[in-house]
Amino acid sequence: MKKKRDKALVFSNKMYLFLIPALSFFLILWVYPVLQLFYYSVTNFNGIDYNYDFVGLKNYIKIFENGSVINSIGNTLIYTLVVVVLSNVLGLAAAMALNTKIHFKGLFRTTAYFPALFSAIVVGFIWTYVYMPSSGMIASLISLFGGDGSTFNPLGDFNVALFAIALVEVWKSFGTTMIIYLAGLQTVDESLLEAGRIDGCTEWQLMRKVKLPLISSTITINVILNVIAGLKAFDYSFIMTNGGPGKSTKTLMFQIYEIAFTDQKMGRASAFSVVSFLVIIAITVAMLFIMNKREVEL
Amino acid sequence: MIFGKKKKDDREVETYLKLTPKVLLLYLAIIVFCVVIILPLVIVFSSSLRHVSNQSSPLLLFREFTLESYITAFNNMNYPAELLNSIITTGGSVLVVVLIAPMAAYPIARIKSKLARFLYVFFISGLVIPSQMVIVPIAQTFSRLGIPNTRFTPMLMFITCSLPFSVFLFAGFMKGVPVEIEEAAYIDGATLSQRFWLVVYPLLKPAIVSTVITQGLWIWNDYFYPMVFITKKAQYSLPVGMLQFLGDKENPAQWNVLFAACVLCALPLIIVFLILQKHFVNGIAAGAVKG
Amino acid sequence: MKNKKFLSVLCAAAMAMTMLAGCGSTAGSGEAAEGAATAQEEKANAELEESTDTYDHEAIENAGDITITMMVSGTAAENDFETEVLPELINKKWPNLTLEVTKLPDDNYYTSLKTKLASGECPDIILTQPMYAGQNSCYALADAGYLAPLNDMDFVAKMPDLSAVTYDGKLVTATNSVSILGTYYNKAIFEEAGIKDVPKTWDEFLEDCEKIKAAGHTPIVMGDKDQYVLQFGLYQIAANEIYPKDAEYDQKLRTGETAFTDEGTWDTVLSMYNELYENGYIDATQSLGYGASQAITDFIDGKAAMTFDGSFNAAAILGQGEGGDFERGYFPIPAKSGDTHTATCLSAGYSIYSGSEYVDECKELIDYWFNGESDVWDAYVATGRFIVTYGNGADSIPNSDLFAPFIELLNQDKGHHWCNQAWPAGTENTMEELFSEMIGGQGTTVEDITNGMQDKFEDLLDE
Description:
The complex is a heterotrimer of chains A (298), B (291) and C (463). Chain A contains 14 helices and no strands. With 298 residues, chain A is mainly alpha-helical. Chain B is built from 13 helices and no strands. In chain B, helix 7 (153-175) runs antiparallel to helix 10 (205-221). The radius of gyration of chain B is 23 Å and the shape is globular. Chain C is of the alpha/beta class. Chain C has two domains: 46-175 and 347-394, D-Maltodextrin-Binding Protein, domain 2 (3-Layer(aba) Sandwich); 181-344 and 418-461, 3-Layer(aba) Sandwich (D-Maltodextrin-Binding Protein, domain 2). The longest helix of chain C has 27 residues, at 3-29. Chain C is globular and about 70 Å long. Chains in contact: A-B, A-C, B-C. Chains A and B meet through helix 1, helix 2, helix 4, helix 5 and helix 6 of A and helix 1, helix 2, helix 4, helix 5 and helix 6 of B.
């Protein structure tokens, strides 16, 4: 009990004063505009004319009637799944490989992180070239090795385009994920592993029973960050495919952007944002909950 | 060449793995993987060293060396001025963030109450809304507050948007800073701000480095806020300047110049990254792992 | 080509516009029509009000040192007219005036424009499009009160008809040129395939495509990954198959008298365009992954015989590629009946922000630029991007021989607006999406597309 009272003295409520600068920025320039957005969701604001009317829940009803919502949510979930799985599996594998005693570790690490230095817009343009039919990088490589490069056209294929742009996200974000894993793995106590080896555990068992549980919080962070990035996916649909072909790469955020800006229905787009905001929060919190629980179990 | 120096940074005095077939396979796998990752960037670099009009297959790597594309990009972008603007904007924003984000994280990490827990989640929830969506209300807010479009306007947004992740990172890291140190300082009669700035803050260095790099990276690369909140061309930063090379239905992109512009835009980052990378890895480690 | 002829061109364009405008007002007064969209419609078609007052023609001279800001869409080329030449010449004319011009790629331009309007920091001069076209449509912006009336400007007298940029009796966009959608072709390939002349009917056009295919060439290359290029072909066909039969078709859409689903309208247009894909004249498996600029590159490399594109892209399409210096031509997609019309209409132009401190100064600036003889005008015409209709150079604009067939049609009163100019922004996107699905083998039918367009159209009009 005494200890606890000391704590309250050391960490008094006066500390909350430290929040003031950051909280002011956040409240005025982020929370307030977001609340404004909530308000627009019950109006027929078109993004230009500020003489708008209150329309009640009409925008919400419209977005649920509209099939484009289901399409964009589906695309976003697939995109997110691809990014989360590939980025984490590759990131973890690479981190484990680099966590052994090998030469040129720094060089490999630098290389893997390099793509993260470029802006999404640059990356989008580079990969537009990489994926270009007939004269693009991959198509040229296929031709070089005797294949038929002219039929390679991922961004023009309805079934492939979404995976193609998700792969770009993986390419860019993989390095960060790997570095976080690498850092997590370095906290694993070598002596624990030694003990395991003496007990006759195989490397695979060591990984499953010792390493993974020990870096479970790192896994949580990586997965959550990738999930958020995936659900917010916008850049590559915007830069590389413009949502096409058809609407096969329209993500949630792209769809919202299109409703707000192209269709000039800011009110409906706001309703859409509110719904997706709630969905993303729900998914994130649920993930946090499940992963935290797993962390404990492990 | 640049990487040669890097090797020394790894203070791996221990023996390396013996070159068994299994280990060789590991090397091979890593090398192939790295080549796949780096290949698009190599092509970008090689294309940027070509003549503006050279449209032959970019896979013919490094057949031509000319700075023509760079000179075109350099002049069209007004590189020195835009570089300076980028440095000011990024530097200024990051500086403010590493001051106020740890301050906000301090009570969140130290006080065990529902309010602190709520504030933590509150800040993190800022991560999930993309800026394109809120841009119109934000612009109206600026208008209501009477904030004009100056070179500082985008910085306000950079700072705001960096807060969620930074607070998350600092709060996580701060939980790992032993409270005993502070208790000792408290007994020695240090005031709250002395304790924070003199005792806790210096211990946050890895998390600060990590914030500088992660937030600096997106701020440096962001064209959106400067594009919408800056009216004068003289105040443009590098990514906005780069937009003009992208091409549209009236002027198809000149790939070689575009790639040269990409390299020019990323160059300062690459240099900083190569210098700071060791800190970076440690910083990320510190910030994220304990979060 | 002589000035006179060009003037008559304009008259023709004007008449086309007036026809559209005229019918709109009847539509607007229809009793069935209700709601904001219709009210807007009515305003949209009011006649240009005669202005009695005039603005201060010495505004800049008396203003002291000022900075006028201007924002346009596009990407800056080498020695760009808007961002480099114009500010320099303006500063030479008025040393006390600094013109600050920003040029942004289309999508970024739209976003910036909206943000800047929201923050009350809109540039003094902005680029706007005729009628309802795009996110910078002059009607939408004028309806919200953002555009200053320009009725008292001097250049107005030189333009016979500006109804496509006149809203509620107020001229809101200063424009002086026309834009064309057409078919660029490679004369060398045409010759090689044994084609003597440009096709005169749709059937001839198909036959020619077949000949080109038989000669081992790609007939048409398109960059359908940038879905907007679908409009380049479709609107040409619509100009042939819809508007000649019912010039008021688009106005009637707004009152419900016509619909996209009407037989013999868009179903015809879409099926005709789809024939080109079905017969392999445009290779959908390739075009869907091709960007617009790649398509242009293929064309100038001599890899395809034709591409549908606008006059605004002439400079790029006439450029040199691996294909060398082959001769190029430009023709409108011919009509089924042989009575070919063209998608040629008023271009986008410049508007003055109503909240600007320098409205008169901007008017003086634009009038100087548009006066048909200033050095700004000459530089403007010399870019070759604008098909101006009066003044110096109107008879000698670069590539005028290329545009001649279209101008001739305009003279015969056969020019029509681009379809999306009359639709609420966003309708064309649905058309493009669904059409891409159809050519991409997703089982979408022509009927699905017209239904989708109609639904979207009604949805967008519904406030």
